[in-house]
Amino acid sequence: ALYHAKKRQRGGAVLFDSDHEYQISFEAKIESALKQADLKNELSVVFQPIIDIHDQWTIGFEALARWESPQLGKISPACFIPIAERAGIVGSLTKPLLEKALAAASHWRTPLRLSFNLSAHDLNSSDSVLMLIGIIQRSGFDPTRLDLEITETAFAHDFEQVTQSVETLRRMGCGISLDDFGTGYSSLTRLHALPLTKFKIDRSFVKDLHLRPSSYKIVKSLLALSADMGLDCVIEGVETEEELAALIALGGTSVQGYLFAPPLLEHEAAKFAAEASGA
Ligand code: C2E
Ligand code: CA
Ligand code: CA
Ligand code: CA
Q1: ipTM of predicted assembly, 2 dp
Q2: For ligand 1, is residue 263 a contact (CB within 6 Å)?
Q3: Which ligand 1 atom sits nearest the alpha carbon of residue 180?
Q4: Tens of pLDDT along 102-157?
Q5: Ligand 1 mean position, distance from CA 6 (Å)
Q6: Residue 149 pairs with which residues in a beta bridge?
Q7: What region holds the EAL domain (predicted)?
Q8: Helix residue ranges per DSSP H, the chain
Q9: Considering only CA atoms, which residue is closest to atom 34 of ligand 1?
Q10: What is the pTM (predicted TM-score) of this model?
Q11: Atom of ligand 1 nearest to the CA of 200
């Protein structure tokens, strides 16, 4: 009570209070719209190319969720995915998203890879893993061409169960990518315990790395670590030629970012792949 009284005496603090309330009601609005949504129709998937740094051919695409709500308009996944996670309903989004991504990828005329993002909730029970396996099998898409992207925070919740789920998917042939590599707090011992096939270096380290010695050193050591572990590494968020040149000099192998292409609609992605896959 004292804390509140104090806050109300100051203009800025009152603003903070109402900001906070605004934030809560906004989140509640999104949550209820998601719960009522016709997810099969309102959700769609776009595809961002992942590029070989040397020949600049397309290796595959990362599927990224898009939501257009009739009431709220277009909402970014950076906004609605965390809300769906907190509300415990992200699994109901994963199903239509993975189905759509696999259906689109099945039409690609060259054997490109598909990356798909998973949340902790997709991996914290054997039921949800069975759902994922069922969707992959029904799609007919070769699981050895599928990379499932998981962040370090997904392992923070229930390391044992999530590791077990990931192992099951790995045995099925799926690749396992550690997303946003470098932003979490995993110990190396922990990373070694996971059946990882790939790292994805977060774009926060890539921005102006040629001008920022601390970013440069981080990317350099993450690349060295992935090479030591014998894993591929995708560098995200490459926006400029200068960043690309620095990454080539550091021995990077694959890149993703606006310099090459933004996330593309399904038909644009198919066209991009036909022109830039060397096939
Ligand atoms: P992420 O997995 O790290 O995806 C990369 C994000 O960076 C995407 O944002 C992409 O559009 C953006 N990006 C790519 N290249 C550039 C660049 O050169 N510059 C900048 N500034 N940004 C770039 P997006 O599509 O808004 O997705 C945001 C996040 O939402 C994703 O981050 C991922 O964590 C989550 N997400 C997206 N789709 C799904 C999904 O289907 N399932 C789950 N669980 N999460 C998803
Ligand atoms: Ca990702
Ligand atoms: Ca990422
Ligand atoms: Ca991210």
Answers
A1: 0.97
A2: yes
A3: 3
A4: 999 999 988 999 999 999 999 999 999 999 999 999 999 999 999 999 998 888 77
A5: 40
A6: 117, 177
A7: 27-277
A8: 2-9, 11-36, 39-42, 77-86, 90-105, 126-139, 152-157, 159-171, 188-192, 213-228, 241-249, 266-276
A9: 78
A10: 0.92
A11: 3
